[in-house]
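Need the bound structure for H79, inputs here:
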Amino acid sequence: MRNQPPTRQAWTDVLPVLACLLSLFALVLSAQTSAPRPPDPTREKRLEWFRDAKYGLFIHWGLYAIPAGEWQGKRSLGLGEWIMNRSKIPVREYEALASRFNPIRFNADEWVQLAQDAGMKYIVITSKHHDGFAMFKSKVSPYNVVDATPFKRDVLKELADACAKRGMRLGFYYSQSQDWHEKEGAGNTWDFGPDQTPDGKELKTYDTYLRGKAEPQVKELLTGYGPVALIWFDTPRMMTPERGQRFADIVRTLQPNTLIDGRLGTEGDYRSTGDNVIPPEASTEAWETPATINDTWGFRKDDTNWKSPGQIAFKLVDIVSKGGNYLLNVGPTAEGVIPQPSQDILRTVGRWLKVNAEAVYGAGASPFGDEFGEYTARGAKDVRGQKLFYPQTEWRVTTRAGKIYLTFFGEPRAPFEIPTRAYRLADHARIDLKMENGKTTFSMERPMLDPMATVVVVEFEGDRVQK
Ligand code: H79
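Answer from helper R.:
Posting the output first, comments after.
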């Protein structure tokens, strides 16, 4: 038994020998990297469901779904929900969208049903994005979906009720710093001038906005909608530790079990990666990647650059094998419809997950790591000056007590060495093992059972493999 991570050697067609052998014995002895901060038992308790959930649905929905990437007949480039900023739309003009917001096809039950069909375990919806418009009834500001639109329905309340009915956890995205609708909020430089001088002196009475709108609206979210799974803060501009703490105190006081994401500005409960960023390595710390299913968060009528179900399945298992969660976004239209391609993709991955659930939900990270890829040996740097990483995407590993799940996204090029019994997860078909040179190996049947991803389970005696 070795205590080094297993290594793979290059294999070529001209070398018909057993190469790239993987010793799964090694995992028993391999250790994970240590946690970056001291364990907090209360936080760990709060995080229990989150660590097991693995896969959530992000929903970006707001007034920006009406222009859908086009303003005054001109295409506005960038993220759909950033249109007010990118096209420098004055507050008075953007506000007028509210009188046109009437998404009569919105059906909260259908959205929750979609998340369930997709195999997602929580939903996070924008309660207020940077444009400042609240998608819930707010006493703090009339700029909200009930008081300012012909629709007059509390979208968040309907979704909260549907989630409660179906046992789905619900969290709220809330843009705490940027609010382009408010004079004293951050971000609207075109109507209200810069937030700060170049040397950092604040030019807006930012605390007036925080105390007058953001903090009381977060209180509303935590009091009127039942149990809130998490608050997803974003872009912490001018968020001093003291200001961040005020939000944290509100959350902890009103709902001690509600998680705080990693973008409040002070310490949250888990780490949020950059948008669409999947880290190259595993971590024991709780973390989450927020990601788009095409190239925008809020609906854009011109964005049809959908990721395929296979790409989504890979990202999900990749993230799980690194110990994280995948928060995958959809952007409903102004009619209240989640674009059909998004629905189809999510349901296709959902069908795969139904069969292969065991390898994902509650599964532990890979005890190896070399299957993720490798840093270039020559020291080349990427555009950000980071060491260049060459990802490998052939297979990933997840774990559970006594079990190892090898998920193959393509036919493995060479046999794998395994210590004992193995079977295919989808149909429990036994995998034939070969004994050669004292090593037990298996070769994947070709074509693979499921070309999207086929999971092979390796079982160990007892509980030697820990999650
Ligand atoms: O809600 C989604 C994004 O709107 C939000 N985070 C995710 C979850 C986000 N806020 N800020 N950013 C992401 C960084 C934004 C960068 C850009 Fe731009 C927005 C690049 C293009 C549009 C700002 C405006 C920088 C260039 C133009």
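Comments: The pocket of H79 is lined by residues 78-79, 81-82, 85, 234-235, 275, 290, 297 (CB under 6 Å). Confidence is low (pLDDT under 50) at residues 1-35.
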